[in-house]
Amino acid sequence: MSTPPPTTSRPAVRIGVLVPLTRPGWVEAGQHLLAGLELGVREVNEGGGIDGRPLELVVRDTAADPKRAVAAVDELAGQGVAALVGEYHSVVARAVAARADALGVPFLCSSAVLDALTDEPSEPVARLAPAQSHGWRVYAEFLLGAGHRRVAVAADPSVYWASGTQILRNCLAPHGGSVVEFDMRALSPEAVCEELVDSGATALLLLVGHPEPAVSIVRCVRRDPRLGEVLVGAPAGQPEFAEWGGLLGEDGASVPFLRYLPERLGELGLRVEAALRERLGGAPSFVAFEGYDAVVVLADVLRSAASWPQVAVEGTRGAISFSRVPGIGVWQWAWAPVQVVDRDPAEPGRFRVLHTG
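Request: output the structure for the sequence above.
Response:
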């Protein structure tokens, strides 16, 4: 799949796009990311393209599979794409970053947050999304501010979930807090409720796949009268998307999650929001804004032949530039705005900002 360039006699500048568009990938996130990328490309081309050459997206579905993504990187590099962009899943983005670095192909990671996107410092790889250690630290601040010191996590096995658990543990421990882990390889949603009662935790965080088992865990906890005061949270952002609300209704409200939007959008953000809403047929997620901003960055790089640290552009969520951040091997925008948000129980289609960082 690719976006057709406008009619022109000059060859297109081709960008390889990596997005999850089929299960077990997070499909709705992939759709929003692609919508933002496509809108950005349309506007670049309407403005004359890259020195008169149109931008063209060459899209590959990763389906949350690192091996499939690496094969796509090899294919796209063989086709001579000018850069790679995208990916939502951290484990997949890490595989893409390693291969792009080895091949020397520029890769702008739009949406994955795992700190260790590469094992060693990389010149070709940059990232828009805030690193997990930054965003999840903000989430831990929210938990502490709300009085939660004993926190349980229902976790699938994954380097991403394990990293998140350790970040939470490191942030809570200095304040007398602790984290108890529930291994979802061994527990049913009903068993999670039993473990939660025994643990004494006042919050349960869903570090699991979406829609399942996340949706089933929420339903079980909401229906257990012993757990009526327990906060259910989802720092990775599952409640951001319409599918969550459609599956859970009122049960999906009051589940705090991270999103990367400012408190108020500026003029560019509002215009892009309206265009994305029309394109998606509903409210755009922060992931759609990440896609649009990724094209803004790439267009600047391609027009000026600049390197990542020379980028200075205005995105939908603020001024974007890249720097070296201690402990992170890629060029990093430090930082996109971070919010802790939930769906309003009085109106589940509306979001409430609970904390900003």
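The chain has ten helices and 15 strands.
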